[in-house]
Amino acid sequence: MAEGANAVEAALSGGTVYELFVTERAAAQHAGLLDAAREAGVAVSPITDRAADGLSETVTPQGIVAVCALLDRPLEEAVTPAAKLVVVLVDVADPGNAGTVIRVADAAGADAVVLAGDTVDPHNGKCVRAAAGSLFHLPIARVRDVPAALAACSAAGLRTFAAHGYADAELDRVDLAAPTAWVFGNEAHGLPPDVLDRTDLAIRIPLYGRAESLNLATAAAVCVYTSAMAARR
Amino acid sequence: MAEGANAVEAALSGGTVYELFVTERAAAQHAGLLDAAREAGVAVSPITDRAADGLSETVTPQGIVAVCALLDRPLEEAVTPAAKLVVVLVDVADPGNAGTVIRVADAAGADAVVLAGDTVDPHNGKCVRAAAGSLFHLPIARVRDVPAALAACSAAGLRTFAAHGYADAELDRVDLAAPTAWVFGNEAHGLPPDVLDRTDLAIRIPLYGRAESLNLATAAAVCVYTSAMAARR
């Protein structure tokens, strides 16, 4: 379910929407969206405020919810030889973090996001909200098998870079212009040694102050954007 | 109040701690911290698990809480002519965002963070937790008067750069090596026009994909780290 006007708009433009539910008030506010939905052949059904509360996972429902097709694509469709930038999440536990990183990947022009290992379900409502529509903007693949995800990136011609707090190589010293897959690990535990071993290079973000680390979403933003800007320099 | 072993450790090393409260279990787990506190002349008081629950703002209290001095410093002590990188938050509403940006600023080696206008109180528990100790690592100033905050940065020899989604200048095209104060606005509304007018340059993060924006914390991470790395190149 995509909830709120922004998410519904993104779902209509990038995904498959089965049905749209709107309250009377939301219908008046978002007439353009409703027209777009009807033009796309999507059924639009009125609901009461109380029903909207029931469908919503948020405290202040916007009164507009789309029921969408599942989002994930096969790995080989998401990661192709045309890809220049891919983000791989390994065992990421927090849906808000996963959604935020998907939004960052989209903003940075990534070609795909691969949710590998035990990473959270991208259909989780918190992930959908944190992604702010980006779930519908780029292909998302889900793969249990982490080595298979990394192998697919290598086969597509991408270097695999592991973000790792104790790596020798520093982000500002590495050539980031070539096609890259960034690999990020669990919030608490990082990447397991066997995954680190399978990547081409482990890289750390230099810590110039006294903080011991960055959180996952800000670390991913720094790594992915530094690559995206370097590739266009 | 600094809650949890990491925050207490940071408070002991960087701030003024009045008293430390620990449960029996936490005392056994963190004997080294308790020794450090006693050596620093801090009173250590045992509390029950139930009292720890009462003091805690989290669902799973760690059983160790420090009562600390208020953190903020006068603007002129925080922003000095020696400063090379300063982060200014204007009207930032979410304490988790403020704390995350303070952690990013610390990691990037910033000299100070200025919380200007209606920005949240850094002593808010969510801010303290998101900052993960960084509140004690660099000076934090609180200033109602936003023009005064910007004037102090200019007087200290910093260029003031406003992060703004509709700016003409793109982050990857600007020379970021000189001393800089980055200015970030409210999560929903961004920076007001009169604040934009008072900064030297408005800069946007290039959006290479289809996302319409980044959230505050990830945008700040990209801007502040791009500056920090450029200054050391």
From TrEMBL, chains A, B:
Residue ranges of domain RNA 2-O ribose methyltransferase substrate binding in the record: 1-74
From the UniProt record, give one GO term of the biological process aspect: methylation
InterPro entries assigned to the protein according to its UniProt record, in alphabetical order: Alpha/beta_knot_MTases, Ribosomal_eL30-like_sf, rRNA_Methyltransferase, SpoU_MeTrfase, SpoU_subst-bd, tRNA_m1G_MTases_N
Pfam families referenced in this protein's UniProt entry, alphabetically = SpoU_methylase, SpoU_sub_bind
Q: Which organism is it from?
A: Amycolatopsis vastitatis
Q: What would you give as a GO molecular function for this chain, any one?
A: RNA methyltransferase activity
Kindly give the CDD domains that the UniProt entry links to this protein: SpoU-like_rRNA-MTase (cd18095)
Keywords annotated in UniProt: Methyltransferase, Transferase
Annotated protein name in UniProt: RNA methyltransferase
Tell me the superkingdom of the source: Bacteria
Which residue spans adopt a coiled-coil conformation according to this UniProt entry?
none
Q: Which GO terms describe its cellular component?
A: cytoplasm
Record-stated family: Belongs to the class IV-like SAM-binding methyltransferase superfamily. RNA methyltransferase TrmH family.
